[in-house]
Amino acid sequence: MNQFELDTTNSEETSQFAAKLAGFLKPGDVIALEGDLGAGKTTFTKGLAKGLEIKKTVNSPTFTIIKEYRGKLPLYHMDVYRVADAFEDLGFDEYFEGDGVTVVEWAHLIEEQLPSERLTIFLYRSEGDKRKMVLTPKGERYEHLCKEIFR
Question: What's the half-sphere exposure (Cβ side, CA atoms, 13 Å) at 11?
Fold first, then answer.
């Protein structure tokens, strides 16, 4: 399994990369985001929303678990940090198989419910606003997507 890495020097670069990625996404795509608090998961999602031409303000759905936004493609933004039981049926599969793009923050907490094919992005904080992103594609679709975006 290949990994693709990208270093950004500030939140704007992180957001710009996410907006670029949005141009390659299709309905049913799933992006799993991992990283410590403050690593840039929501910043990344805001950039993705911008690339999907979403006009509403995007913020973390920590207490609502799922927020939906309409743009070029629907964006389903999940923050599963507070999901106590990983096997609780919250209808995640309806989003994963839906007509939009799903972004899951803290995705490892619902690992058993995630589709086997997805793009996992690990965000690591460096000094200041610098970030390292490690993209790990799972499945042919996401392998091809990463090769295209890093071309």
Answer: 9
